[in-house]
Amino acid sequence: MRDRTRDGCLNRAEAYWLSHFPRMWRAIMAIPPLRRLANRKIISRAAGRVKSRPYRFSTLADYTSWESLMDRTYFSRYLPPRDLPNPPLPESMTGLFKVRQGGPTLSEDSTVLFMSFAQWFADGFLMTDPDDRRRTFTSHQIDLSPVYGLSRAQTDALRVNPEARGEKGRMKTETVNGEIYAPRLFDETKLVLEDLANPKFDEQQAFKSEFKHLQKPSSFKRNRERLITVLGPKPASERVAELAKTTFAFGGERANITPFTAALNTLFLREHNRLAGMLEDAYPGWDDERVFQTARNTNIVLLIKIVVEEYINHISPYHFQLFADPSVSWRAIWNRPNWIPLEFNLLYRWHSMTPDKFFIGLQHVPVKESLQDNSYLTTRGLAETLVSASNQRGWRLGLFNTADDLVQVELAGIKQSRENRIGSYNDYREAFKYPRVTRFEQITDDQDRISALQNLYGNVDNIEFLVGLFAEDIPPRAAVPPLMGRMVAFDAFSHAFTNPLLSEQVFNEKTFSKEGIETIQNTHTLKDILNRNLAPGQRPAEISMTYR
Amino acid sequence: MRDRTRDGCLNRAEAYWLSHFPRMWRAIMAIPPLRRLANRKIISRAAGRVKSRPYRFSTLADYTSWESLMDRTYFSRYLPPRDLPNPPLPESMTGLFKVRQGGPTLSEDSTVLFMSFAQWFADGFLMTDPDDRRRTFTSHQIDLSPVYGLSRAQTDALRVNPEARGEKGRMKTETVNGEIYAPRLFDETKLVLEDLANPKFDEQQAFKSEFKHLQKPSSFKRNRERLITVLGPKPASERVAELAKTTFAFGGERANITPFTAALNTLFLREHNRLAGMLEDAYPGWDDERVFQTARNTNIVLLIKIVVEEYINHISPYHFQLFADPSVSWRAIWNRPNWIPLEFNLLYRWHSMTPDKFFIGLQHVPVKESLQDNSYLTTRGLAETLVSASNQRGWRLGLFNTADDLVQVELAGIKQSRENRIGSYNDYREAFKYPRVTRFEQITDDQDRISALQNLYGNVDNIEFLVGLFAEDIPPRAAVPPLMGRMVAFDAFSHAFTNPLLSEQVFNEKTFSKEGIETIQNTHTLKDILNRNLAPGQRPAEISMTYR
Fold this sequence. Notes:
Helix content of chain A: 40-55%
Oligomer: homodimer
Strand order of the largest sheet of chain A: 1-2
Distance between the termini of chain A: 28 Å
Low-confidence stretches of chain A: none
Largest sheet of chain A: 2 strands, antiparallel
Number of strands of chain A: 8
């Protein structure tokens, strides 16, 4: 058993209370005013855990300046920069991440749908500028940018923009095998094999010209280089051309990364067009722009609903099922506009959850081969692809559980953390109201982890934030370890509930329309959205983030 | 006597209580915990008067969209657009603004220093984009942009940027008659008379090259055109060249507009360099950048102190003297980032306060002639110029009291208000918790105003926001009429106290240094700042926003 003496009395009591007494919690949930009150208290406690924004620092400088307080192209940070004594060489840390003998540990109850949603959702607001890793081009908001893009020019490129009846407010689509998808990004006539084998090839030149303002799919270049090394230039360029033909024109640079992220993006794209059709019918006087904007308002709030009511409830070990009541933040002192902390960007690296194979349809596909290959999606269709994702468990989050191909990505996280002088695991425990640990045995009861940490760091006080975070044991019923859970809850609630669309004067029928508000009220899970966006004649599908 | 039946019971009680019982208020101010409590309650009541931001609309569109909620290059707005029935033609409204027979009414106790401070201060954040009057390039913050500019490039142009001892963190200056000022903007060799007479002349071409990124002084072109019309091209270009030689390189496009605004900008420029010197001495290890940024942090908060403790207290009819306690907003539900409403931009047009002549030194100068002529400032020096401004009363704010030269500017405000479809005076009374008026006699007891309003609008419900606002009587001890007072208080407090520099994790010695915090604590009035920035050998000066 793990040494629990440094868990903190109040923390233990709170965790116990919330993850026991299922009948009491069911009773509370059955009485609407009690349910609202409990929801508000739990969310406010989590979102008020540390002092509200603005924080003292951003990644701009080691002291506070007017620029550091205003320039949101930098990440904020919870804690000031701090150098740790003698951090281990990143090369010596491979063993900490790699799957240990005996093979990977599966997650208790998280499906690949959960893992893919986490990936696709976080890619919508965690973007690091590749040219200066202290900086970002995020809007710091949940805004469905993977669907709509990051700028007016990108959004316009993705929109059908006529006033013609039946097309008002719609996003561009293409039909494949009788189902609706985003249009393809590349112009096939520009995908010349010799070019693709050339290391200097710029993929943006092969975009359809209508999409010239869109971002480059982020892993396209890396994947191409890998394929050239593995297969040699000619077979690689043939494979790259094949992959490129399946790439969708999406708003987000990473939405094409796996068939599952592409499926989730497709889902919200279809929902946008469904909403636009509904609004066009209900408000014949509205122009293209108003239909588009009102559908987008609604679609963004649908995502927030899913995040709170399906995703967070899956992560949380609580019996109480939280719900997205916008008013929880209206009078809250933690209602301060979001500004993504670098530490949050780092902690969301949940690569260990990615299995080495995906089960798609009836096939087992090595993850590597599925990358950027949307033919897996279009062959099986949206519903079957998402069903596959929810019939398979992901791996368990934590050390000794990262697939070989992703270990380098873990080490890149460690390097980014050090470049930004992120402090120790204990510093962040303290910041988030956990007592500092004094023995390795207080972090985990896993002997392998304890010895590895001891060898690498010597002293618990020297453990890096990012390593300590993933070294903790995952409690029963939870999807992530305790410190991460607390940080994710803090950030998720203070992010989602401060979205301007949920604010007191904005969250009403005038902003979303009567139909939009009803849709918001009737949507709780991805399944709800999927089953109103099936291909004609398809039967309702069962999908879930929780493995059953 | 004005008909007070529509003032509202609670409003009357509140106003009575706060503007009577001076001895009680003095007693409260003498007991620190009571003083802090009263301060917090009065500020929170004013800042919580209407629902907190974000508002439903910006000037982008007549409905709410993700863009309208995110794009801060538009003004926000308190109320949705609304068309008023049969508004009078602007040309027919001249008489409403022009000084009536019998001459102008002087303000009871507001000096030209108060009026000039209002002008200079508001010009720091109320900027309308001349190419699209729905838009702005403000930061929506009190940030001393008239001193520091609006962008990194502008700030850099205004800074001395060496690591040399004795110059760290300083702004560029020039000495004139033994006193410190900003450097001159124009390169005299580029001020060619033929060019200045050419209507197409672009003044930016005559800037010193180091200042090429600075904004054009906003009224330079208009003033030049006026002079060409009045004096003819040749004498006009000589006068323009003379004026241009006195123009300072400032961050704000309007800071050169009168010798008094230039004096206020000079005051904060000198204070910056004084602070930088103090920090350089105290922290020899700091580099140029850190000294600059820390001096700026402090200087911005000094401006906020002056705004709350001198400016707002002058405007307010209350006996209680408010003070800038940063913590009033830390737990406040109105703590939401500022986003300047268009209505606030409009209501701050206090042109009627500007007299037709300035008294500078021993001279009476027509305001028109003083425009952009900083020789009045440099000849007399900073202290004497500010003393002149505080020995002269401004005119009283309101209808029938605008100097001839500014009447067109008032009409431009009316036009901007209509372009943006700003609603009625009664709509805004209601929004700010005053009962709607039902008779003209409830607005003012001035018979001329009543008949003019009656003739122009027929019905009290049709009175435009901007006209009703200035038609109200000014209560005893106040500087502005009641609705405007309430709107200004709401905006000033929710603007000033949500400045990130005052926030809970930022307002401390780490951000400002020990010396900076002490300076902030010891500064309450412009006089405090002036008397530590006198020319060598000068005696302390007495200046005040309140006429004595």
